[in-house]
Amino acid sequence: MSQRQEVAVSTAQNAESLDLSPAMGIVEEMSPVTSGDIIPLLQRIQDAYGYLPPEAVLSVCEETGLPASKVFGVATFYSQFGMEPKGKHTVRCCKGTACHVRGGNRVLDTVEKTLGIRDGETTKDMRFTQETVACLGACALAPVMVMDNTYYGKMTPRRTELLLKEILKEES
Amino acid sequence: MNKVTQADFGTPAVSSLEKVTVDIDGVPTTVDAGTSILRAARESGVDVPKLCGTDSVEAFGSCRMCLVEVEGRRGYPASCTTPVEEGMSIRTQTDALAKLRRNVMELYISDHPLDCLTCAANGDCELQDMAGVVGLREVRYGFEGENHLDLEVDSSNPYFNFDSSKCIVCSRCVRACDEVQGTFALTIEGRGFESRVSAGISEAFLDSECVSCGACVQACPTATLVERSIVDHGQPDHVVETTCAYCGVGCSFQAEMKGDQVVRMTPSKSGQANHGHSCVKGRFAWGYASHPDRVLNPMVREKTTDPWREVSWEEAIAFAAERFKQIQGEYGRKAIGGITSSRCTNEEVYVVQKLIRAAMGNNNVDTCARVCHSPTGYGLKKTLGTSAGTQPFDSVMDADVILVIGSNPTDGHPVFASQMKRRLREGAKLIVMDPREIGLVRSARIEAEYHLPLLPGTNVPMINAFAHVVLSEGLEDEAYIRERCDMDSYEAWKALILRPENSPEQVSVIAGVPAEEISAAARLYASARRGAIYYGLGVTEHSQGSTMVMGMANLAMATGNVGFSGAGVNPMRGQNNVQGSCDMGSFPHELPGYRPVENDEVRSHFENHWGVTLDPDPGYRIPNMFDAACADTFKGMYIQGEDLAQSDPNTLHVEEALSKMECIVVQDLFLNETAKFAHVFLPGTSFLEKDGTFTNAERRINRVRPVMPPRQGKDEWRITQDLARALGYDMDYRTSAEIMEEIAELTPTFTNVSFELLDEVGSVQWPCNENAPLGTPIMHVDGFVRGKGLFVETEYVPTEERTNRKFPLLLTTGRILSQYNVGAQTRRTANNIWHEEDLLEIHPADAETRGIKEGDLVSLASRKGEITLKATVTEKVQPGVVYTTFHNPETGANVVTTEYSDWATSCPEYKVTAVEVTPATHRSEWQREFEERARKQGEILRSS
Questions:
Q1: What ipTM does this complex have?
Q2: Of B187, B203, B207, Cβ closest to residue A73
Q3: For residue A69, which residues of chain B lie inside 8 Å, CB to CB?
Q4: Cβ of residue A172 closer than 8 Å to a chain B Cβ
């Protein structure tokens, strides 16, 4: 089955689960959408859904007349976009030089061990997604970890574990 | 080694009045300002290496092979993205450049399979060539690291493979799809080392938006995108420049040959209609010429229930001549006639009409243009003075506003559609007047300003309403009208148009389009500096087809939009040689060059040349032939390359007429539907075997050159000539070129045309005579051909075909990209993968009230007949309108259509039939009979 057919089938299956109205609302607000608007358009869709659901992207292409291939090209080019559903929280660990030197790897190992997921993966309960980044531009705070949009500097494995467990506890 | 590659200058040609002189490797070179250094060098014979550049797409500057040194500049600029500047001194070969290029090549090859000897592109690979040019001798990086060598081949497309492991990510395919074809089906997915060419959203080519035009395959410098035919047969050894035999665009192709086997058809960059572009039909769907269904031996039979008997050419022709003479003896001279084919060359058509007029002694000759563009001939001749479109295709690149009426270019004329889409992306505005939402209305980076989804049958009131807006708001071009048009006719027309029934408000009620939309669209067209009208069979195939053609000519004249580039009234001709078959005298009332047969002077001109006395009375048109056959007064037909039984309307009536005739001679590639009623079958030749000319929709006469001898042993014009001789009229052409000589001698618009001229200059657009020795791209430049442009009153007369409670829906018909007309050719190719059967498009609202779901079998019934087919539920059609195609004989779309026709030309009203659609459980009666007949004929064939 082709990707498009899969999307069609999953769109039919998800007709209730995936609400297209946020995507359509964004299109309406941004209208007329031209090829120069692909990045902000995708950013807003990703904000709305937490990721870029292929069904939503294809519907947006249909609605705006943007070629699906081109939107897909942009979505796969930038690391900020993901077409897989993401966890409620996104943990990003820096692997830049400064963080590496100051033990960033041990922070990363702790995240992987505590959550049981590797780079780019999401926990089965859809609570956490883990990503690595090359540099966050906060080298003075190395090693740095970002939880959702909050920066945590001078991390240690112990502080990392505490932070994650705190969130897990709060939400359970 | 490769003798067939077309020259590639690396970046597109730039045209500028300003000239720039630069020094390239010590040689002064002058080019148009804006030209890239790469192109300037290549034009002057210095082949700077390149990979990502090709002259069909804009420069990209990614491969770093075309680096050069420019005196006084730092670094090594890419020559493809650097335009020339006056006085530049450029060096293309230095030690530093050689080292850079070799290192870049080394990186490419470090992630490329080294299977050159067994690769399909061996001998036609730019990567291989460039590796040779830069002298690559070793690859220091090894193949142990990460690479793409194990990627899978996508062979979903029936005509080409996509092998990503061979891809150098130069993006030429992506840019060709964007810039040349305008489909935007391809992209580069991912980033950095992960970057790969991807179809659609990382899907198989077949599942993506790809329309298989072949532009990406053409652009690919490696074997990443490669034709299956090349994989199967290897590289060609020579090429023959010829013309595609599908639609009226008339694309020039290079038939790439290995001996007398075609291994690939490549669009010719020098083609003046297609400029190196193609569509899925011309590029790939030529396999029908060697399909096992092709009949290669003449056959005869006493009765249509007898088995066919293979006989010699002599016997078949004697048999046909004997029968024709017998019929004329018994029923009179006018009891036989014939049909010329718009699929055949001008020379073949000319000889057939001459056979009928000179050897049969009557004017019972007609052509398949009767059922498509006869109203164009009538309407444009009457108003402007010439039975043809006014512009070359390239004119669209100057248009500001494009009005497309009843034409579906992306399906019907795809190569021209790509050019039009390019112009639309540049900013021209588009108005589409069509009952359906055709591809142009909304597609990648294209959106029509206005889509006016009028009800089928309301063209004339719509065009009148356009004119009403123009005249009532003072948007007409008064000076133009006064200078170039007939004022009396203008005043009369104006009075009619200004009547209240032609106002947008009143027309809106009939046509179902909001009045404001009509007014706004009319204003947009009228306000264009250069407004162009393109139209198709959605205009002509109506009871008021001719009226509508004149309505458009009226509007174009009133707004001053004829006689210069970017404007005009342009018929999109359906078949490859519709224009030519009409030019060649295929109509019963006109001798070659549209000269009336009733005119004594005209007739005596031909009589002197042909050495016979010609019948002064116009002959039968196709529908008259059928009527006369049903009345037992018309008994024999010579039918060249047209499948009357499938393509003409009201199939039951056609079948009755055909079955009553005593001698039907079918000359065709295949035993088509009409052949089931035939007594003599004379095998024809495919375009690959023809020597002659086709005339496309822009009046361009293109050479068709044989790439192999006729497979059945005889040129088609020789068959006709033999038949003429057997009927007692001596024809003695030795070559096809001699026929063109005679055409040129007898046709004022062709005086200067000859095979020698065409071989020399490529193609010419008629009129091509002493006044225009190299042809006439734009017509009516200094005034209309008829003198003063004539406005014709276009009063709306609704068709007799009306909806009622029993038949509440309107059926309109058309065609699709992958199939071609009755499908005789395309159904015998892999194109079936896209369109296996004809479907009925129906709006969700109409489907729901009838309990019809996607894919259901439905009955489609009109007052004339009933068929069944599968339904597809879509909002492309509006409520109240259904649509289908007529590509498959077993569907029988024309069983349903009526015998209503254009009042002036008898062009059938295919586009409006009142129907009802209901769920069905089994095939219709006609379809069961059809299957039975097909089975019987199949048995007859097998037993013979």
A1: 0.83
A2: B187
A3: 184-187, 198-201, 208-209
A4: no
Residue B88 neighbours by CB under 8 Å, 6+ apart: B22, B23, B37, B70, B71
pLDDT digits (tens, 9 = 90+) for A109-149: 999 999 999 888 899 888 999 988 888 889 999 999 999 88
Q: Write the pLDDT tens digit of every residue in B522-549.
A: 999 999 999 999 999 999 999 999 999 9
The alpha carbon of residue A123 is apart from the nearest alpha carbon of chain B, in Å, by: 24
Calpha distance B654→B865 (Å, rounded): 13
This prediction has a pTM of: 0.92
Q: For residue A32, what is the nearest residue in chain B, using CA coordinates?
A: B447
The answer to the question of residue A54 being in a domain is yes
Whether A22 and A94 map to the same domain: the answer is no
Q: For B294-314, b where at least 16 C-beta lie within 10 A, e where not — what string?
A: bbebbbbbeebeeebeebebe
User: In this structure, what CATH number is given to the domain that contains residue A51?
Assistant: 1.10.10
Is residue B829 within 8 A of residue B287, CB to CB? The reply is: yes
Q: Which of residues 10-39 of A touch B (CB under 8 A)?
A: 35
Q: Which residues of B touch A73 (CB under 8 A)?
A: 187-189, 198
Final residue before a domain boundary, out of A38, A55, A77: A77
Phi, psi (deg, nearest 5) at residue B794: -120, 75
- 3-state DSSP call for residue B322? helix
A84 within a domain of the structure (yes/no)? no
Domain count, chain A: 2
Is A82 within the bounds of a domain? no
Tell me how far apart the 2 most distant CA atoms of chain A are, in Å. 51
Which range marks the domain in which residue A26 is found? 3-77
Paired tokens of B790:
């004539």
CATH code, domain with A124: 3.40.30.10
Residues A63 and A95 placed together within one structural domain of the fold: no
The answer to whether A40 contacts chain B (CB < 8 Å) is: no
| Within a domain: A83 | no
CB-CB under 8 Å, B445 with A73? no
Domain boundary among A22, A56, A77: A77
String of DSSP letters for B842-889: E-HHHHHHTT--TT-EEEEEESS-EEEEEEEE-TTSPTTEEEEE---T
Set of chain A residues whose Cβ sits within 8 Å of the Cβ of B189: 72-73, 76
Distance from CA of B206 to the nearest CA of A (A): 9
- The Cα B193–Cα B812 span in angstroms is 51
Element (H, E) at B571: strand B569-571
